[in-house]
Structure formats: C-alpha cells, structure tokens
Amino acid sequence: MDPQTFLDVATVVTKLKMYPYFDVAHYVLCCLAVRDDIVSQAQTAAGQALTFQRKHPLSSWLSSMLVCFAGSIVANFLLGEPILTPFKDQRDLATASIIWWVYMINYCPFDLVYKLAKLLPFKLLICMLKEVQRAHKVYHGVVHTAKLYPSAYVVIVVIGIVKGNGSGLIKNFERLVRGIWIPGSNELLQPTFVTKECLVASIIFLLERLGYIAVPHPLIYFGVVIFFVYFKISSLLLGIVDPFVPLENLFCAIFMGGMWDAMRRAVKTEPVKEEDKDGLLRNDVIKSKEEKKKE
C-alpha cells in the first residue's frame, strides 16, 4: 500500500466516532460476559444453569451496567472524580439498558440475539469493533491523565490500563452485586492478556506524548488498533491465549530468580534419611548372605 494512502486510512481510523456501532459492540460483549459468568457460576453451585436474570433483574441490570461502564467508574475513582459521571449520559445508559433487556434477560423471542452473537462470524465482527473502541479508550485515558498529572508516568499508564480493561478489574465487585464473592480470582493475581496489551498500548502512547517516538500520531494509533484486532482474531480462530507468556517466563528466569532456583535444584543433593540408611544396610546384608550361599 502506498505510504500516503496508509496514512490517510490511519487518519480516518483515528477520527472514528465510537457511537453507535463501537459502543454497541462493547455493550453486547459486556452483557455476554455477565450472562456467561452467571451461567458458569450457577452450574458450579447447583449443577445446572439457573435463571438468575429472571429472578433478580435489578441485580442483573446493575452488574451489567457496572461492566459496561467499568473503565470510567474505576478511573474516576482512582482520579478522585465522581464515579457516577458515566451514568450522566442518558443516551449511553439507555443504549446499554436496551441491549441488556433484549440480550441479557432473554426477552428476545427464541433467544435469537444471544444465539447470533455466539456464532463465529458475528462474534468476530463484534470483537473487532470492540478492540477499536478499546484502543480509543486507552488513548483518551492516557491523554486525560497526562493533563491532570503531567509527570506522574505510572499514574498515566495505570489509568490507560483501567480505561482499556475496566471490566476485568471490577469483576469482583460486579460479582458481589450478584451475591458471589471469589477473592482468589482477580486481575491483579491473574492478569489476562487484555490487561497486558493495554499496558503496552499505554506505554506506547505515553512515549509518543513525551516525544520519544518520532512517528505521526495516526500511524501509532492505527498500529495499536491493528495490534489489538490481530491478537483478538488470533485468540478466537487459533486459540492463542497469551503470546506474552514465553517472554514472561524468560524474564522471570533471568531477573526473578528462576534461573538460580533451577541451578540450586540441579546441584542440590538431598541427605539420606535414617530409614533409608537402614534399608540400604539391610539390602547389603541380604546380598552378602546370598553371595555366601552361592559360594
């Protein structure tokens, strides 16, 4: 592709408006995640999928809204801003609620919306739109935080991560709204690939803002979008869960003591226990007796 044409395409992607298509894809995936989590937890607890969303519609709606607006809620909490600000936009709240009503509560006849969204072609399309929106959120989270705290680089990167994967970070609280508490499963203990890629994107946008990357902004933004979309498609089609794992293992082996632990285990000789010594002595005595008999 001609460089100028590529730059023009990147500029168009940079200026895309998130509403309605990209936001709708985000809300659909959020409601899908909540519904699937309800089903999985119900199967674990009772051996069958309970109709939680029909028995507890308020809890179901609130948990879905928390996931839909998780990035803004968590980011506002960390930055000392009102956490209810995301709910001020009546258009977004109404759109998310309509998707929850049709999609989450199964009021759609024959559950058609849920079944369509589960089909691979539709899921690919929805996920691609979602990844474009994720890049948009990470970038604007970095820009907004850089204006508030220009020299707080860690804070800037953290808010970029939160904006990009707030649903993963708020999962414990969202489950608590539904009466489930699983403290051993959270994004800090077991970070997913989404959190890691948001970390990489936040650092890239920060370096661009600091002037360390001398590339036009549309190209950087478009590169992040391609990075997000490519690995999401790879996870759906090829089953690639976390391509960062080999790098993490290598880093831990070199800098986190893994190599030294392996060397210590290799050269360490375990002392022979007393009962093992007695066993060895008995075996020697038995062997010596057998040899005498043969003679």
TrEMBL record:
Protein's UniProt keywords contain Chloroplast: no
Protein's UniProt name: Trimeric intracellular cation channel type B
Listed PANTHER family: GH25683P (PTHR12454:SF11), TRIMERIC INTRACELLULAR CATION CHANNEL (PTHR12454)
InterPro entries with a match to the protein in the record: TRIC_channel
Statement: the UniProt record of this protein carries the keyword Zinc-finger: no
Gene Ontology, cellular component aspect: endomembrane system; membrane
Keywords from the UniProt entry: Ion channel, Ion transport, Membrane, Potassium, Potassium channel, Potassium transport, Transmembrane, Transmembrane helix, Transport
Membrane topology: Multi-pass membrane protein
Localization per record: Endomembrane system
Membership in a protein family: Belongs to the TMEM38 family.
A family per Pfam: TRIC
Record GO terms (molecular function): identical protein binding; potassium channel activity
Transmembrane annotation, as ranges: 58-78, 98-117, 138-162, 219-238
